[in-house]
Specification:
By secondary structure, the chain is of the alpha/beta class. The chain has 13 helices and 15 strands.
C-alpha cells in the first residue's frame, strides 16, 4: 500500500478548500467528553530499513497453512491451488471486474460469469445457474425465499445436519416473513426419512438438506427427493464442499429442484475464513424466481461472439418491489479464480482430486480406528470429512497436534451439545496430505 504524506502547507490548503480554519474545527460535531485528549500510544518513527525488519519480525509470528496443515473443514477447506492460477489472478484487468452495470461495455466480466455458469451447470447437471453470490449460507437462504415465492407456502423443513451457520442465516433472512421453520431431530449421521415424512404437510414449501452434510455424510438424496415431491414440496440441496461434485452423483440427475452451492474449494485459498463464492442452480421452469443475473451468449450484427444480460432480477436493475433479491455486488474475481482452477484441472483432473480426497480421508479413519483409541459413532458413507469419537483427553489431543504443526479437527459438541457428541471430532482430509503425514497423525493420536 502506498503511503502519501502531506506537508503542513498542503494541510492548510486542504482546510482552506473545505472552508475551515483548523483541523480542530472539523471536530466540532464530536462532543468534547468523547474526544481523545492525548496522543495515540504509537512507537516513534523508524528509518525505512528498520521498519521493514520490524514488520517482517511481526509477520513471522503468523502461522500459515503450509507450516500447519488443517485437519478442520466444516465449511472452509484447504485444497492445492496451482501457481498458474495465482499468477493469472494478478493481472490488473481482473481486479476491476466488478458489477456489469453497462453490459455492452463489460464483455470480459460477462464472459467470466458465463464461463462459470457453464462449469457449474456441467457439474450439477442443472439447467440454469447464477454464480457470484456472497457465500453458501446466503445462497441457501436465497433458495429458501425462492421456494416460498414459487409455492406460496409458509413452512420450511431443515435437516439438523445442515451447517449451523447456514441454519442461522436462513432464520435471519426469513425473519420479516411469516414463515415456520421446522428442524428435524438429530438421530445419527444422516437425515431421517421417517422423521421427514412425519413433518411434511400441505403447507410445506421446501426441504433443505446438505450433502455431504455437516458431519461429512453423503445423504440418500434420491429417496428424500421422492418423499418431497410426493408431498408437492420443493427439494433444496446444499453443497458446502464443492470438491464433492467431482465424484458424487450430480443433483440434476436426482431431480433436485434447487441447488445452493459454496465454491470456496474451487481455487479460493483460506484467508481468515474468506472470501467465498457461491451459486444457485435450478430447473428452467423456475428461472423467473432466481435472485440475480444470468449471462447469455449471442452474436452481434457482425457475427461476432458476444455476451448479454439474459436475466436481471436484482433491485438495482428493476423496481424494488418487483426484485427477487437485493444482492447487488459481484464476486467476479472469485468467479475468475474458479474459472481458472476448473479449466486447469479439467474433467479428469477434478475427478482425480475428488478421488484423492475420498481415499485419503478413509485411509486416516481406518488407521485411527486400528489404534483402539477411536470409535465410529455413526457408520455412514462420507466424502472427505468423518466424525469419530476419541477415548482420551481431547485437550491433550489438540495440544499434541498443534505441537506437531497440525491444526486440530473440530469438536462438534459446541454445535451439538448432546452427551453423545462430547468426545466427537470432525476430521477433514483433503489432497494436501501425504501418506507419511497421515501416518504421522495416526501415530501421534494412537499414543
Amino acid at each position: 500500500m502506498r503511503y502519501i504524506p502531506s506537508t503542513s502547507e498542503q494541510q492548510k490548503e486542504m482546510l482552506k478548500e473545505i472552508g475551515v480554519s483548523s483541523f480542530e474545527e472539523l471536530l466540532t460535531s464530536i462532543p468534547e467528553n468523547v474526544r481523545l485528549k492525548k496522543k495515540l500510544n504509537l512507537p516513534p518513527a523508524l528509518p525505512e530499513n528498520e521498519l521493514e525488519e520490524n514488520i517482517a519480525s511481526i509477520a513471522q509470528k503468523n502461522i500459515d497453512f503450509y507450516r500447519m496443515k488443517p485437519l478442520i473443514g466444516a465449511g472452509a477447506y484447504r485444497h492445492f491451488i496451482p501457481e498458474a492460477e495465482k499468477a493469472l489472478l494478478q493481472r490488473e484487468e481482473f481486479w476491476t471486474c466488478y458489477t456489469p452495470y453497462q453490459p455492452e461495455l463489460s464483455q470480459g466480466t460477462l464472459q467470466a460469469i458465463f464461463e462459470f455458469q457453464s462449469h457449474i451447470s456441467r457439474l450439477t447437471k442443472m439447467e440454469v445457474v447464477i454464480p457470484s453470490i456472497f457465500d453458501g449460507a446466503s445462497a441457501t437462504a436465497e433458495a429458501v425465499l425462492m421456494s416460498i415465492r414459487l409455492t406460496h407456502k409458509e413452512k420450511i423443513i431443515i435437516s439438523p445436519l445442515l451447517h449451523p451457520h447456514y441454519r442461522e442465516t436462513i432464520k435471519t433472512y426469513v425473519e420479516p416473513h411469516n414463515i415456520e421453520i421446522v428442524e428435524l431431530p438429530l438421530q445419527d449421521g444422516a437425515t431421517s426419512a421417517d422423521m421427514l415424512k412425519q413433518s411434511l404437510d400441505n403447507n410445506t414449501a421446501a426441504i433443505v438438506v446438505q450433502s455431504p452434510n455437516f458431519l461429512g455424510g453423503v445423504e440418500d438424496i434420491q429417496e428424500i427427493v421422492e418423499i418431497t415431491h410426493q408431498n408437492d414440496a420443493l427439494f433444496i440441496q446444499v453443497i458446502v464442499e464443492a470438491m464433492s461434485l467431482g465424484l458424487l452423483k450430480s443433483p440434476g440427475n436426482m431431480n433436485v429442484d434447487i441447488v445452493a452451492g459454496n465454491t470456496q474449494s474451487f481455487g479460493l485459498d483460506l484467508s481468515f475464513g474468506g472470501p467465498h463464492n457461491a451459486f444457485l442452480a435450478t430447473k428452467k421452469e423456475y428461472v423467473r424466481q432466481l435472485p440475480g443475473r444470468i449471462v447469455g451468449e449471442t452474436k452481434d450484427r457482425d457475427g461476432k461472439r458476444v455476451f448479454v444480460m439474459t436475466l436481471r432480477a436484482r433491485e438495482q436493475d428493476i423496481r424494488r418491489e418487483k426484485a427477487t433479491s437485493n444482492i447487488c455486488t459481484n464476486h467476479n474475481l472469485n468467479v475468475m479464480a474458479g474459472n481458472i482452477y476448473l479449466s486447469l484441472l479439467g474433467t479428469e483432473g477434478l475427478y482425480q482430486y475428488s478421488l484423492l480426497n475420498f481415499k485419503k480421508a478413509h485411509y486416516l479413519e481406518k488407521e485411527l480406528l486400528k489404534s483402539g483409541k477411536f470409535t465410529n459413532p455413526f457408520p455412514y458413507p462420507y466424502f472427505n470429512e468423518f466424525l469419530i469419537n476419541y477415548q482420551g483427553n481431547i485437550e491433550e489431543l489438540r495440544k499434541r497436534l498443534i505441537e506437531n504443526n497440525f491444526i486440530p479437527p473440530l469438536s462438534v459438541w459446541q454445535f451439538y451439545p448432546e452427551e453423545k457428541f462430547r468426545q466427537s471430532l470432525l476430521f477433514a482430509v483433503t489432497e494436501i496430505f501425504s501418506r507419511d503425514e497421515l501416518n504421522k497423525i495416526s501415530n501421534l493420536l494412537s499414543q
